[in-house]
Automatic annotation (TrEMBL):
Region Disordered, annotated ranges: 258-403
Pfam families referenced in this protein's UniProt entry, alphabetically: Esterase
UniProt name for this protein: Esterase/lipase superfamily enzyme
Basic and acidic residues bias spans: 286-296
SUPFAM superfamilies cross-referenced by the UniProt entry: alpha/beta-Hydrolases
Listed InterPro entries: AB_hydrolase_fold, Esterase-like, Mycobacterial_A85_antigen
Ranges of biased composition (kind: Basic residues): 393-403
Coiled coil: none
Organism the protein comes from: Parafannyhessea umbonata
Gene3D superfamilies: alpha/beta hydrolase
Length: 403
């Protein structure tokens, strides 16, 4: 297996960042490490080995990247606003500098998949839910999605953008990203055994994606499945082949549609473009004034000015209630959370800066030993025989309670 390590200076983060690429060509897959780990973690715990056949077969090219968790999520001794801002800078680094480097090494402009375990799953999910125009999907395993695990009751507009369990409930059903979600491969998985106290977080994400009618796959494995590398290796080997098949179908259909459009006679294009205004009006996106389901614990007041964050790849105008992919809480929208290289709109308004609360809470679940180890629903349903015999799985597209 080809293995190359890269180190580049990040302008956004103002520090050197490392990345290890495994394989040549194929679908680019960006792997985020667990809390505080460096880019060699996937290799040291055997996750690269779990994907070796797909890497060596040229189906995927794996990119393991550094994180800055010790400067953001885990930096309990510094100001919470600075910590939240550092996470936002990391997100900006991922969506601009890292993405550009991955595409350069991969030799294509393919949208990458994002994968990760525990806190790495949160980074993977944030990438695709906030920028589905840039990422093809995610496989998020045992994710720590709730910011309060690290910040306690403290909240701010910046942290709001990085708290999936907070911003997703505020996304309006007619937001333009909802359609993109259904064209992506969003896979989320969690066990129900020891240290897997993140099940409720995933059930909330499952519920919200279902509310949006966004295609996804949330899988709840058995009560013997714990929060550690042993199971994550089994899960990544189980999900990745199915996701690859779905990505291939989706991207092939996109290429066919693009070719058909390019081959369309100029007169036909003009006719299609000049459709009756009444018909266009019927399909216009409604402007939605969104109110949060619940106020953040900080009781911060909503800011008053709303600025459409950006133009997504489709160049559709953002609605009055939309903004950067991380939705924001109140009817009065606030300023965009991140300065994306390629800006995009997203769902709701968010609160103004919140008052600091007591010392931030540390994560409830500890990571498994370091030495040991999303939402578009894959079209193909897994067979019982293809899954580890000790594992129980939910049906695609939603949760299923275990007896």
């Amino acid at each position: 297996m080809k293995r190359e390590q890269y180190q580049n200076h990040s302008t956004v983060l103002n520090q050197d960042m490392s990345m290890i690429a495994y394989g040549e060509g194929g679908i680019p897959v960006i792997a985020f490490q667990t809390e505080g780990a460096s880019c060699n973690e996937f290799e040291s715990v055997g996750m690269v080995d779990a994907l070796a056949d797909l890497i060596e077969g040229g189906q995927i090219q794996l990119f393991c990247v550094d994180g800055v968790d010790t400067q953001s999520w885990s930096a309990y001794d510094i100001d919470p606003e600075a910590r939240a801002q550092r996470q936002e800078e990391y997100f900006s680094y991922v969506t601009s500098e890292l993405l550009e480097e991955v595409q350069k090494v991969n030799g294509s402009t393919r949208r990458p998949l994002a994968i990760g375990c525990s806190l790495g799953a949160n980074q993977a999910a944030l990438a695709v839910l906030r920028r589905p125009d840039l990422f093809q999907g995610c496989i998020a395993l045992s994710g720590l999605y709730r910011a309060s695990r690290f910040f306690g009751s403290w909240m701010s507009p910046t942290l709001y953008d990085n708290d999936i369990t907070t911003f997703l409930p505020n996304m309006p059903e007619d937001h333009e990203y909802v359609d993109l979600y259904s064209k992506r491969q969003l896979v989320f998985c969690v066990g129900q055994g020891e240290h897997e106290d993140v099940v409720d977080d995933l059930r909330q994400i499952d519920s919200q994606l279902s509310r949006l009618c966004a295609s996804h796959w949330c899988d709840f494995w058995g009560f013997d499945v714990t929060h550690d590398w042993y199971w994550w290796k089994k899960q990544i080997a189980y999900f990745m082949p199915q996701v690859i098949d779905e990505v291939t179908k989706v991207t092939t259909a996109e290429k066919s549609a693009a070719s058909a459009s390019a081959a369309m006679p100029a007169t036909a294009k003009a006719t299609k473009k000049d459709a009756p205004k009444k018909a266009a009006a019927k399909t216009a996106t409604k402007k939605v004034e969104l109110k949060p389901e619940a106020k953040p614990a900080s009781k911060a007041k909503a800011t008053t000015a709303a600025k459409p964050a950006a133009k997504p790849a489709s160049k559709a105008k953002a609605t009055a209630a939309t903004k950067p992919a991380a939705a924001k809480p109140t009817a009065a929208a606030a300023k965009p959370a991140a300065k994306h290289a390629a800006k995009a709109a997203a769902p709701a308004a968010k609160p103004a800066a919140a008052k600091p609360a007591a010392a931030a809470a540390k994560p409830a679940a500890k990571h498994a030993a370091k030495a040991a180890a999303p939402a578009a629903k894959p079209a193909a349903k897994p067979t019982a025989a293809s899954k580890p015999t000790s594992v129980k799985s939910a049906k695609k597209g939603g949760s299923k309670k275990r007896k």
